[in-house]
Design a protein that fits this description.
126 residues, alpha+beta, Aldehyde Oxidoreductase, domain 3, four-stranded mixed β-sheet, 7 strands, 30% helix, globular
């Protein structure tokens, strides 16, 4: 399942969305907005916008994961809008009969979300 949301990601709700009947392992990764960039700048917010078919790109990532690993389900959620420090930017989750596939597929999903062409961001600093 893929989802694009202007609303905050609810971790409890996300867990309920992921299929896990045959899963022995469930891995979740939440990317969050950092307040301190490490470059002497403090983030006020980051604005994420869809610059293309974001849903289609998320679906391609999900399909790639399902073709490469033994996963029961994949959940990808990406936020749009102005997000402040501590807000969840995205969620990558995978359920699998085994932990190796759950972790590896989740790592792959994280890497792909970071490189999405259909998302632009504008950082606003204090």
């Amino acid at each position: 399942m893929v989802r694009i949301s202007a609303e905050p990601i609810n971790p409890s709700e996300a867990y309920g969305l992921l299929g896990k009947n045959g899963a022995g392992s469930v891995v979740f990764h939440y990317a969050v907005v950092k307040a301190d960039t490490g470059a002497g700048k403090v983030t006020a917010c980051i604005e994420y916008r869809a610059d293309g078919d974001m849903e289609a790109e998320l679906n391609r990532i999900s399909t790639d994961i399902q073709e490469k690993w033994n996963v029961e389900d994949v959940l990808l959620i990406r936020r749009v809008g102005c997000l402040g420090p501590g807000d969840i930017i995205s969620l990558v989750a995978a359920s699998s009969p085994n932990s190796e596939d759950a972790f590896e597929s989740c790592r792959y999903g994280i890497a792909r979300l970071k490189k999405m062409a259909s998302v632009s961001k504008n950082e606003v600093f204090l």
